[in-house]
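Known limitations

Structure tokens in this collection are predictions and should be treated as such. Users comparing against experimental data should check residue numbering before alignment. To illustrate the layout, the record for Nucleoside diphosphate kinase is reproduced below. The input appears on top and the generated tokens appear beneath it.
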Amino acid sequence: MTQRTLVLLKPDAVRRGLVGEIVGRIERKAGWRITALELRTLDRATLEQHYAEHVGRPFYEPLVEFMQSGPIVALVAEGERVIEGIRTLAGPTDPIAAAPGSIRGDFGTITRENLIHASDSEESAERELKLFFPGLV
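Generated tokens:
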């Protein structure tokens, strides 16, 4: 089943020069392709919408601040089971728990700055794509 998903390469990935490596891993997966890509700086209003379900949690403010700390790369990936696949490619949030070969397993350093966001379901992908790429939906 062909799907579309949102991927955000977070400020730490951009700062550390990992954009090409991460994009390359997505592009090398047979059947997946990137259909939109943009470097941008996120404003608080966008982040508040994106992370609305986390309001009130202890990590919310540090997360919003981190995501505003530098440019991010927002991209749309399409392909067979791409939502599940990119989340597997990303690995668990905790880089110690992430397997070697995953993005976080290979490059992650701390849990809060975890390199990549990928939609976790078709519903989330649809909502997030409308927020980040309204012209595509």
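For this record: The CA atoms of residues 10 and 64 lie 11 Å apart. The chain has a mean pLDDT of 96. Please report discrepancies through the issue tracker.
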